[in-house]
Amino acid sequence: MTIKDVLVRHLQDTFEVETWQPPLSDAVKDLTAKQAAWKPAPERHSIWQIVRHIILWKQGVLEAWDGHAPDMPAMERADWGEASGDEAAWQTDVRRLHDVTAKIKQRVEASDEAFLAGKMPSYQGVRDQTAVLRLMAMATHDIYHAGQIRYIRALQGV
Amino acid sequence: MDVQQTLLYGLNATMTRLQRSIGDLTDEEARRVPLEGLAPIVWQAGHVAFTDAYFARKVDGRSRVPDGYPELFKSGSGGPANYPPLAEVNEVAAASQRSLEALVRTADLATPLESDRYSNVAELIMFICQHRGYHIGKMNTLRALLKKPRLFG
Predict the structure, then answer these.
(1) Domain count, chain A
(2) What is the residue range of B63's domain?
(3) Residues of A with Cβ-Cβ distance to B141 under 8 angstroms
(4) HEC string of chain A?
(5) Which of A96, A121, B7, B92 is deepest in the core (most CB within 10 A)?
(6) Tell me, what CATH number does B114's domain have?
């Protein structure tokens, strides 16, 4: 058993394979743009905003993987913008979520144990982080938001 | 960094977030149901504590939860009920966490387990982290509906 075995399974079970709870890809499935943009209250986040938030931070993981520590304050400023549009725009964001996730999974599958156990850049001005821990936290972030989305759907009756 | 350290990180990170999610709530807030069909925060935390102990017991044969927890916190429950105080649920969750940490430190992590959700002890621990993460997400949507401060991204 290797940390890569554990990590690949975690990536699968949080995003694409249902174990006990629906993974993130299921949580965002079969929603209309209107349902995705719905908010429980004006100051709360919609499912669409959550999807863009996850894409943003996964892109940050890819940047770090490429050796460029992301600028966290700049990412935070870009995060949680309003999100709405037509069905095509919503489906584009769902596709972007799948694409960035697949890219990370492919890289993990192509990685060796030494890389995953080693350090990768974190954020500018922040200490480097162990790769496997960063990737594990990223995947747990997926299932956290899957739980949130499940209840935002329930509030809408979908 | 090895498998054991990775699993301990996962357990600690998820338990810390669970405890932060209930740390500033009153018992009344934790029991409030904003919409029929949504289980309250105390149920989410109790369900995690109960299931953590259930899974730990599959391996260590010892872990227990107080009487009444299986009925109150099993999957599919979550409606209005006489829930225990949040402080008690937190203690049970902490005890389950200690059992799981001990298990990770002492068990052979490659020991096969029969389940369609995990095939060995290491996968069981990751499954537990995923299950916790999912319910922490629900807890934080419920916190938002209670107008409590946002804790995580």
Answers:
(1) 1
(2) 3-145
(3) 40, 147-148, 151-152
(4) CCHHHHHHHHHHHHHCCCCCCCCHHHHCCCCCHHHHHCCCCCCCCCHHHHHHHHHHHHHHHHHHHCCCCCCHHHHHHHCCCCCCCCHHHHHHHHHHHHHHHHHHHHHHHCCCHHHHHCEECCCCCCCCEEHHHHHHHHHHHHHHHHHHHHHHHHHHCC
(5) B7
(6) 1.20.120.450
Span A105-130, average pLDDT: 96
Residues of chain A found within 8 Å of residue B126, distances taken between Cβ atoms: 6, 9-10, 13
Residue B153: inside a domain? no
Total domains in the fold of chain B: 1
| B151 occurs within a structural domain | no
Q: HSE of B76 in the Cβ direction (CA atoms, 13 Å)? A: 2
A103: domain range?
3-156
pLDDT in tens, B91-125: 999 999 999 999 999 999 999 999 999 999 999 99
- Residues of B within 8 A of A152 (CB-CB) are 141
CA dist., res. A97 & res. A36, Å (int): 14
Most B CBs within 10 A among A15, A19, A26, A142, hence the mutation to make, goes to: A19
